[in-house]
Write a structure and sequence with these properties.
This protein is an alpha+beta fold. 30% of the residues lie in helices and 23% in strands. The protein has 2 helices and 5 strands, in the order H-E-E-H-E-E-E. A 5-stranded antiparallel β-sheet has the order 2-1-4-5-3. The relative contact order is 0.20.
Length: 97
Amino acid sequence: MGKLKAKHIAKLRKKAKLMQTYKVRESWSLFGFDTFRTHDFEEIKANSEFMAMKRFFERYYRIMKKLHRFHESKTITTYDWGRIEVVNENGYATYFK
């Protein structure tokens, strides 16, 4: 990879400012999230909830050398049926099935 020019660095900084911090965790119970157990969230910077989930799966693959068990979760669903929970900076949670 060649050297980065100042205009490329400026574009990257603009994109980084638009990113938010999301907390992603997976469900360990059959139906939704068990509130009695607290699993650690993984903090990820991304542009949207879907991109945060995608980065979560990519990071899991890099570390574990295998696909995540919910790697095909792409549909937004309710709390009861969620397999992946993504929480933004304001505390709003989105669930994917």
